[in-house]
Amino acid sequence: MKQMTWDDYYGGFYDWSPSTQKNYPYRLSDYGPADEVWEVAQELAFQDEAFAAKFLEKALTAGVRFTPEQVLEMVGTVKESVLSKIAEQTDVPFDREQLEEIYRMIDDASFLRISRRAKIDVFDDEPAAYEQPEQIQYILPKKKKVGLFTALAAFAAGFALAGRGKKKHDGHCDGDCANCPPHYGYRYGRWYYGKGHQYGCEFGGNKGGGSL
């Protein structure tokens, strides 16, 4: 059987019938770049996915190395065992996002190997399922004990403030009975002897002279 170069196969691929496209790969002496090999494999998959998977596996054995992007595109075209082999031998390592996509699409052993090659653990940033938030403890300052002298001073200050609002009297009636300080015959704005203001008022009442 006369051998065929990749350039000849790829150059005439789209001019041949589907049966010829599938027969000539057995005569290939070499394989071309990964993008052309993957392009042909996709065309073959429309006719026969199993044949396309074998075509890719032979290309891998011949030294073709695919990109992680191409491997992800192969999902659903080739079976898991073949996809796992191809994923382990990509031309460059997978990045984190690509590893997350290929996870569970290949066998666990292969996924572990390509993760080690990439030096990426896709699970290292996931929070623990039942991780409790860190509790912050607040330490309140201790209350100072109040001494006897301080308590007496505070009492005196309060007493002074309380008495500040009381009206001072000059000893003569000024007619402001409601605010007049308590004295004989008059308490808290009320006359309780039953007589007028002029009777019994120490300050003279309305008509008294006023004397203290």
Count every beta strand, where a strand is a DSSP E run of 2 or more residues: 2
**Global geometry:** rod-shaped
- Strand-pairing-aware structural class: mainly alpha
Number of helices, where a helix is a run of at least 4 consecutive DSSP H or I residues: 9
Helical fraction: 40-55%
* Content of β-strand: under 5%
Q: H/E element string?
A: HHHHHHHHHEE
Contiguous low-pLDDT stretches (5 residues minimum) are 192-199, 206-212
Computed over alpha carbons, the radius of gyration is 52 Å
Strand count, sense and barrel status of the largest sheet are: 2 strands, antiparallel
Alpha-carbon distance between the two ends: 146 Å
What does the average pLDDT come to?
78
Instruction: Order the strands across the largest sheet as they lie in space.
Output: 1-2
Description:
The chain is mostly helical. 42% of the residues lie in helices and 2% in strands. It has 9 helices and 2 strands. The chain has a two-stranded antiparallel sheet. β1 and β2 form a beta hairpin. α6 runs parallel beside α8. The protein is rod-shaped and about 145 Å long. It starts with 5 loop residues before the first helix and ends in a 21-residue tail after the last strand. The C terminus is likely disordered.
